[in-house]
Amino acid sequence: MASANLNIMIKAARKAGRSLVKDFREVENLQVSVKGAGDFVSRADREAERIIKEELRTARPNYGWIGEETGEEAGEDPTRRWIVDPLDGTTNFLHGLPHWAVSIALEHKGEIVASVVFDAAKDELFTAERGDGAFLNDRRIRVSGRRQMIESIFATGVPFAGRGTLPATLRDLSRLMPLTAGVRRWGAASLDLAYVATGRYEGYWERGIKSWDVAAGILLVKEAGGFVESIRPDQSPVESGSIVAANPQLFDEFAGLVRQRD
After folding, report:
1. Alpha carbon distance 208, 229 (integer Å)
2. Which of helix, strand or coil describes residue 176?
3. pLDDT tens-digit profile of 206-245?
4. Residues placed in the known binding site for Mg(2+)
5. Is 4-140 in CATH node 3.40.630.30?
6. Which residues take part in binding Mg(2+) (predicted)?
7. What confidence tens digit (pLDDT) does each residue in 238-258 have?
8. 37-68 pLDDT, tens digit each
9. Taking the domains of the chain in order of start, what are their residue ranges?
10. β-strands 139-140, 111-119: how paired?
11. Angle at the Cα of 91 (from 89 to 95), degrees rounded to 5?
12. Annotated binding residues, as ranges?
């Protein structure tokens, strides 16, 4: 049975997801400039965050908040905060690609204790609570059992628009791709982590990310039996801006390759 907090999160994610699906149907019909289409998606993004914030704040008015669109707000309870990305995969959404998600995490005393990642386009709801396992549409999920890199698929985010982490990511790819069954770049970090949790990928890494990109997915992977760390292992994967995650059999080898210095 889900806790009261997780049920609140699921309700908020589903409500925002319905709004986004409605807007997503309009994206393919937009015959406007890039700026115009971008503005349309920004409105959809902001509306989704408004819906989530209203639902969560109504139910738990004393919790803190950090959201991609509205930033950080302290709560009367300094030990708890929501970490929210209302539309992870905005570029996919803008281009009519059905691979994006609503991501909501609850943090308590610096630890993620509950997570929801909702892929509304495919009606896939990933949930987790600390100590209670991870689920996809109420079915228990586990990370992959593969033990060989050459049999395994990994995911990452390739920087765009001249972002500074591109050289390091290209070096990672040059080391990893000859040793694996493939690397995927699907453009939604929360779903990359959800796919590691459900065994669709063996691992995921990325640099230059924000807490709301990965907070919910981190708990999904851990509760599905996987390992998650920052690329710098002495840092927090939620706050450091980098992450490496994998099943237990491959984590050390995979993380070692990502952490290798040229």
Report:
1. 14
2. helix
3. 999 999 999 999 999 999 999 999 999 889 999 899 999 9
4. 68, 85, 87-88, 213
5. no
6. 68, 85, 87-88, 213
7. 989 999 999 999 999 999 999
8. 555 567 888 899 999 999 999 999 999 999 98
9. 4-140, 149-259
10. unpaired
11. 120
12. 68, 85, 87-88, 213
- Residues with Cβ within 8 Å of 116's Cβ and at least 6 positions away in sequence, in order, are 6, 9, 10, 12, 13, 102, 103, 104, 105, 125, 126, 127, 216
* Torsional sign, CA 165, 166, 172, 173: positive
What pLDDT does 162 receive? 67
For helices 189-197 and 211-223, angle between their N-to-C axes, nearest 10 degrees: 0
* Measured CA distances, 118 to 10, 43, 106, 160, 199 (Å): 8, 19, 15, 25, 17
- The model scores a pTM over 0.90: yes
pLDDT of amino acid 91:
86
Per-residue model confidence (pLDDT) at position 33? 42
Among 3.40.50.620, 3.40.50.300, 3.30.1700.10, 3.40.190.80, name the CATH number for the domain at 149-259.
3.40.190.80
